[in-house]
Design brief:
Strand content of chain A: over 45%
Number of strands of chain B: 11
Helix content of chain B: under 10%
Oligomer: heterodimer
Number of helices of chain A: 0
Radius of gyration of chain B: 13 Å
Distance between the termini of chain A: 40 Å
Shape of chain B: globular
Distance between the termini of chain B: 36 Å
Strand content of chain B: over 45%
Largest sheet of chain B: 7 strands, mixed
Largest sheet of chain A: 6 strands, mixed
Strand order of the largest sheet of chain A: 2-10-9-4-5-6
Number of strands of chain A: 10
Structural class of chain B: mainly beta
Number of helices of chain B: 0
Structural class of chain A: mainly beta
Radius of gyration of chain A: 13 Å
Helix content of chain A: under 10%
Order of helices and strands of chain B: EEEEEEEEEEE
């Protein structure tokens, strides 16, 4: 069964850093583009970042550009999000997800909560 | 950025009755390859989102056939032919034709009357 499991969330002070991880299993991770999507408490979904299947192409939402870095290790079936200079408004549940609307396969993890507060 | 606008934002429905959610984009979602990358997601309470429909009208594996998607250009609709209790949750449309960024609608909360 295909599965994504996120980890690394927690409570951090404004200006701090966190590194999120997403472990994939049950599918050929290296073949899929991957994304991070977040959901602030009680709010809707917001796309955060994209990685091509090889990791050579990345994109970011304007709200996180210059502060967040997406990366992946296909040998370890893992996706990462390095988050620096965190702000209160970055508080959210962070999901890794495939999001490729052109293929009959879509997968989301259960999310990892990031709380930025003093 | 493409703005996705859903309506209604709240949708009370009687069990067994149909339901319809509209999603409009601020520009045509026809991509240069001729496809239209409009997806629908369902998020049940306390759960992660799950994709129901991709490329306007294609149901994902395991999605009941009471869910259907239609539309073209800038106007799209998700229909549930007969609402069941398990359909309670929030529904989002998302465009993947003009990205980055991928953009979602605000979400439509479906509840049982």
């Amino acid at each position: 069964e295909a599965q994504l499991v996120e980890s690394g969330g927690g409570l951090v002070q404004p200006g701090g850093s966190l590194r999120l991880s997403c472990a994939a299993s049950g599918f050929t991770f290296r073949s899929y583009e991957m994304n991070w999507v977040r959901q602030a408490p009680g709010k809707g979904l917001e796309w955060v970042s994209y990685s091509s299947s090889s990791g050579t192409t990345t994109y970011y939402a304007d709200s996180v550009k210059g502060r967040f870095t997406i990366s992946r290790d296909n040998a370890k079936n893992s996706l990462f999000l390095q988050m620096n200079s965190l702000r209160v408004e970055d508080t959210a549940l962070y999901y890794c997800a495939s999001l490729d609307g052109g293929v009959p396969f879509d997968i989301w993890g259960q999310g990892t909560m990031v709380t930025v507060s003093s | 950025d493409v703005v996705m606008t859903q309506s209604p934002l709240s949708l009370p429905v009687t069990l067994g009755q149909p339901a319809s959610i509209s999603c409009r984009s601020s520009q045509s979602l026809v991509y240069r390859d001729g496809s239209t990358y409009l997806n629908w997601f369902q998020q049940r309470p306390g759960q992660s989102p799950r994709r129901l429909i991709y490329k306007v009208s294609n149901r994902d594996s395991g999605v009941p056939d009471r869910f259907s998607g239609s539309g073209s250009g800038t106007d799209f609709t998700l229909k549930i032919s007969r609402v069941e209790a398990e359909d309670v949750g929030v529904y989002y449309c998302m465009q993947g034709s003009h990205w980055p960024p991928y953009t979602f609608g605000q979400g439509t909360k479906l509840e049982i009357k």
